[in-house]
Amino acid sequence: MDKTRGGNVAQQTHSDVIDGIAAAWDASEVDVDTEPIQVVGRILRGAKLIQILGEAELTRRGLVRVDFDILSALRRSSRPQSPTELSTYLLVSPASTSQRLRKLEAAGWITRESNPQDGRGFFLELTASGRQLIEELLPRQLAAEAQLLSGLSSRARRALAEQLKSLLLTWEPVRP
């Protein structure tokens, strides 16, 4: 089994938490290929760190990432969205989506309108204050995310984006 930890020779002199986890498994009496840990572990850990480090601006406004994602999805949409559409798109459970929607509605950032084809259903839209909020937060959030990626060159960011896109295309169904 190849015991190198990815990257070029200069990058191999630096270790991260995932290197430690893989090394511990490699040194254990359990004979496993730790290559998946090196990829999936870094994706999962990176996602958590992005969420923690990238939510500072959102936290100041009393929001979490899923709130931002809901408001962003509604802002980008050319039509009102149903809670089911948002849940599916954002990969969030319907119960969690409902909880977040109630919070956003109570804050005055979204509004519900009855679905004329389904008396039990409804559609969601941004209010004027919700639209203003997301238009104010978006540049700040993107700047914070750009800062998180500042350790990579522009070329490396594009290459990573393409590699992650390839993975996502194999993991999730094609969406219109």
Provide structural commentary.
This protein is mainly α and 176 residues long. It has two domains: 12-54, no CATH class; 61-171, Arc Repressor Mutant, subunit A, CATH 1.10.10.10. Helices cover 64% and strands 9% of the residues. The protein has a two-stranded antiparallel sheet. α2 runs antiparallel to α3 (35-54) and α5 (65-76) packs across α8 (128-148). The protein starts with 8 loop residues before the first helix and ends in a 5-residue tail after the last helix.
What is the average of the pLDDT values? 88
Q: What proportion strand? A: 5-15%
Biggest sheet character: 2 strands, antiparallel
Strand order of the largest sheet: 1-2
CATH class label of the largest domain: Mainly Alpha
Number of strands: 2
Low-confidence stretches: 1-11
| CATH architectural type of the largest domain | Orthogonal Bundle
Please report the number of helical segments. 9
Total domain units: 2
Order of helices and strands: HHHHHHHEEHH
Portion in helices: 55-70%
Provide the CATH superfamily of the largest domain. Answer: Winged helix-like DNA-binding domain superfamily/Winged helix DNA-binding domain
| CA radius of gyration | 20 Å
| CA-CA gap between termini | 41 Å
CATH topology title of the largest domain:
Arc Repressor Mutant, subunit A
Shape assignment: elongated
Structural class: mainly alpha
